[in-house]
Amino acid sequence: MGEGKIVVAIDSELKHNAVDLARSVSDYIYAVKVNWPLILERGIGIVKELSSITRVICDLKLADIPNTNRLIAEKIISAGGFAIIAHAFCGMDSLKAVKFTEKVRLISVIAMTHPGGDEYINGHWEKLLKTATEAGSYGIIAPGNNPVILSRVKKSAGELKIFSPGIGTQGGDPVTAIKNGADFIIVGRTVYDSDDPVSVVSEMRSRIGSYD
Ligand code: XMP
Question: How far apart, in Å, are the Cα atoms of 158 and each of 45, 120, 155, 165?
Answer without folding.
Answer: 35, 24, 7, 19
